[in-house]
Amino acid sequence: MRYIVTLAVLVAFSTSANAQAKCKNSLIPFEVGASWTFEKENSAVMEKIRELPAAQLLESRIAKQASKVTLTVEKIEEKAGVPTVFLKETAEDVSKTVEIGCTSSGLIVPIQSILYSAEPAAGHTYAFENAKSKGSSYALRKGNIKSKQWSSTFSADVVRGSLPRAKLSLERTVTVGRAENLTVMGKDLKPKKFVITIKGTATIEGLEKMPVQTTDKTAIKPSPTHDANSAIWFAPDYGPIKFLNSLGHEYLLTDFKAPTTN
User: Fold this and answer.
1) Domain spans, the chain
2) Nearest-CA neighbor of 62 among 200, 243, 196, 246?
3) What is the mean pLDDT of each run of 10 residues along the chain (262 residues)?
């Protein structure tokens, strides 16, 4: 019996090590125990809103979001044959572990994750059924970004408690910009800005289709004709260091812990 238990442990360790190797990449340093803490900052979008005549009314209508977000890698192991990063995301008192798949074509990030659209705790109050996705959330080749732009799609039935069900269909496009200069935690870094455009439709039972678009302009003037832009800045050795989402909320990295360097 002791031999069997030992063999099982060895197999589990081997599987975990293999998953960690396949999830290693130059974009996000996924290691068990690694953590990132972000705090909300005043963004340029919010400053523009406050300059408008109806600033107080507009700001009151913008959805409130967490002032602090923490990401922690709980484990990395295979699930259904796919190397998977189990990332715990905590926004204020709301926590959820999202599963990020590591494939030969890149990372598959669930819509609930802040890494999908820069929205903290996105989708935590909803359940998704019959979810289907195509394409990589972050297109990688041998662990490195392989192009300057790519797209992926997501569709699902959205269950919202006692509210009518909805069908969601999205196309997410990522455009990689040039390296920028950004000071974070007192360090001068050169992250690249990943602009995220999300377009699609939401069909609520009994109603017509509605456009789904998020943009750094919607907080000022909502319109289905606006481009849908959020953004995430990624820096070498750190991963995500800044988020700017469609509601104009900005999050900046205030603490980063990597097991191999701390």
Assistant:
1) 2-254
2) 246
3) 44 68 96 96 56 47 74 96 96 90 96 92 74 95 93 91 84 95 96 94 68 44 48 97 88 91 48
